[in-house]
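agent: user wants the full assembly modeled, not chains individually. Plan: 1) parse entity lines 2) check alphabet per entity 3) run joint structure prediction 4) return tokens. Steps 1-2 passed, two entities, 1070 residues total. Proceeding.
--- entities ---
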Amino acid sequence: MTAVNFPDKPKVNYLNCDKGIKSWLLTLDHKRIGLMYLVATLTAFFIGGMLAEVIRTQLLVPQGLIFHATKHMSSFAAYKHYNQVFTLHGIIMVFLVLIPIIVGSLGNLVIPLMLGAKDVAFPRLNLISFYLYVGGAIMAIVSTVAGAVDTGWTFYTPFSIQTETYVCWMVGGIFLIGFSSIFTGLNFIVTIHKMRPPGMTWFRMPLFLWGIYATSIIQVAATPVIGVTFLLLIMERTLHIGFFNAALGGSPVLFQDFFWFYSHPAVYIMILPAMAIVSEIVPTFSRKHIFGYEFIAYSSLAIALIGFLVWGHHMFVNGQSAELDTIFSLLTFIVAVPSSVKVFNWLATMYKGAIKLDTPMLYALSFIILFTVGGLTGVVLGCIAEDVVLHNTYFVVGHFHYVMFGGTIIGFLGGLHYWWPKFTGKMYNETMGRITCVLLFIGVNVTFFPQLIVGAEGMPRRYASYLPQYQPYMIASSVGAYIQLVAFLMMAGYLLHSLFRGKKAPDNPWGAATLEWTTSSPPPHYNFDDTPLAIEDCYDYSNVKYDESIGGYVRTDVPPQAEPAVGPEVAPAHA
Amino acid sequence: MISIDAFSPILGHVFSHPLIGSYGLPHSDSTFGPEVQWLWDLWFWVSVFFTVLITGLAVFFCIKYRFRKGIREVADPSTDHNTALEITWSVIPLIIMMVMFVLGFKDYMNMQTPPSGCYNIGVQAWQWHWQFTYPDGAATNTLYMPVNTPVKFSMTSKDVLHGFWIPQFSVQRDVVPGRTMTVWVKAVHTGHFVLQCSEYCGDGHSEMRANVDVMPIPAFKKKLAQASDIWIHDGKILPLSVVGKKIAALEGCLGCHSVNGATGTGPTWKDLAGSHVKLASGQTVVADYAYLRQAILYPGHKMVAGFNNVMPNYYTTFGGAAHKKHRKLDAIIWYINTLSSHANKASRPPVPDYPGKPAAPRSASPKKIAAAAPKLPAAAAALALVAEGKRFYASMGCIGCHTVNGSPGVGPTWKNLAGSHVKLTNGKTVVADYKYLRFMILYPGKKVVAGFQPIMPSYTDTLAGAKNKKKLDSLIWYINSLSDKASASAEPPLK
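--- prediction returned ---
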């Protein structure tokens, strides 16, 4: 076994090639930008998660454990603070975490590597995207400090016009983040179109790229709508032009249409990249070719396109006409089909494989199970007659947390653990990783399953206090949230440990066959010395064998010969 | 369709079998219950099947095909796609989805279509309060419903979105401001339920509940008769302060104003009457009768320091010259006075707490009861006209040029117009009384307000003449309702 990809591994990599704070803040390197995204989104995730713990602690007792009536404060004045907490939790998790966390961090880190490219198509635009995100986040913080918004993350009018909290700042921040999302989407679309290496036709792309491509289309096409909607909201609040306020001749339902026209496709912005990650992990750890590649690729596009046409299912009880209800219900059922196709294809991939239950695979399995529950509970919500008894209840909360947490976040964590060795160059403690994943899986179910039950029994969402008969479920859900907290603390512990004390990672620790594993861990500044050829099937593992001597996998066939080397001086990367 | 109708009772039967059972939804007490229930049960078991199938397969594969060093390091050779199989597992879910869609659609249409001959109950929602009105004029905070009678709810909101949601009736509908939302239900059992607000509406959202009482029809009628007269209890005339407490609860005042000194969304009523109040403008005023009256009728007018302008306008409930003999406002102010240790002659209403003499409550004659009760017909008529005028304001296009919030427009704003002094282009100043408002609407070019162009079209064809008088008057009623300066001379005569 002589063929080792890079016998003389460069000691200089993208992390240490340049030093100083400026080399990070002004970097055009997609990997560094991806890492900065990772730090920023994880910080937001930490804040949003802590707010979730506050919510769950408040709901331990029917009258509220943290915010409740005192001698000096009426219950309503106290509950306003709870409303601010759940609003911030929602806004942070949706706009600052779920939308950018996979695309911004893992997308940036991995896409050019998967393409064998030196960077994304527009490195400067990429950096601007990041700073728009940071700028938006700062505006969100300002609005929180000045007068935390209490509208719910949906900003429904006319309450969002009436409330005296800092709505303009908050939606202004989201407006900026929207631009960040559009630029990133645009960048990735062009990158995937124009920068594929020789040999990589559309249907030889890794499925992660298909997922990101479908996501980017939604980002570019849908995000402008929410931007304009929020501008109108700002105009209504400051100039009193009646778009959405019935008192000024506007329509609150119009706002809901505009809002969901973006925000429903946005849930596919969140879930498609997670599905894309699972489509990478499952074949790698099953040591078997992905089953039904084309169906998975097309299902991503189908979800992206049909996803634009189902927004009205958020509005079944607000008085839109029965005809519209019917059409939206029909389309909602149809969009469920491509998702189920993916699940069956993943299972078929595992069939007759040689399955290794390493941490990323455990996350992928968690994803499959949790997403199944999230999807099935979503179908019943799309059924109009059932939606009437479940709308606005905790059932909806349970459903979308199964999808958003059990789907997006679990998928993200799978991807994080999968590519961690690649972009940090370090291995984490595998045992701790597995224990934590199992604990998190338990925590998610203990948190969100009781919410499904209590919702079916009729408890409405966004409640600072509740009827006593719901208390057992609320306590169970809170216990689940504490289990999750423990799991995340453990994860933070072993990941930080890995950064400083972790074992050195081989180039290809999992035995994957996509291009990012052919470069070193961590990759050099220019990703690849030569533009690789992508003539091998990226899901064919027959020639990827474990090598004891380096603790990782290597290709046993002759690595594809690269094109004549074009050095960085001729084709500079990150420019 | 026939097959579905035949299946539903059979499946309903299956799901009520103890070995299979039905989980989740509460027992339903309305006619929608059975359909919603069996469809839920159907999907519940389909979901259980697929969750167990997918989880089971995943776990089974992980065990059976696990990686074993030296024994199983590579996958068994097998195909990486099978179009027939993949189409199968695309089409089967599609069929299941379509069945669910048709079933849900069918039940939903039933919910959407109220039968003829419904009993009508009005629902008014505002932060954070429900009020129910019945065809005979009664208003309650508890929703009383006759059993086995289809009831249609016509729902309006005074401020933001609210949600009408009674889990046991399997109905839910948002209450959208600016629209009248309807929903119907037929309760099949008597009993007590809780209506919870399901659409987020601000601070008190989670406490925005109402008790629901489904009663046999005779008991329901008796309850309504009691509820329709707040001024009398057991044939005795109540003191105004006691009535005021009832009204304060009914109108939702107590949701924001505490009576024990605690901070709330609005200022507490404890020790308010007769005290010194600091305003947001920096002024300090004494909370006397005139101030309290004004604060209730025009809440945004003088803001108390430290509070937000969120109180809805109660003008249409309490205000207006036609309500002069309307004692509801005085009753509330009497109640506020009983809560204050600073209460004095200036803060109390100019009418005695006990209506009529002697003060001690005793059996009242029907005549006295009639004298003590407010002139509801006149008040209700004015109220209705204001609402109608508001509609004309929008439908006739007045809204295009005249604002109602004081901001400038093509024509003069209607805010604080009625009863005010208006300067014309000919230099004269006139009082905007009823006659003036009538004239200006009918013959807009004849007199022009200083600073505006004579561009308003004439409305004689649509508003002049005896048959249009009511329409014109309703518009002027609406203009009056927008003004702090409205007086009897600005209001149209009520017959």
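agent: reporting back. Chain B has four domains: 2-112, 119-227, 232-374, 378-481. Chain B touches chain A through 95 residues (CB under 8 Å).
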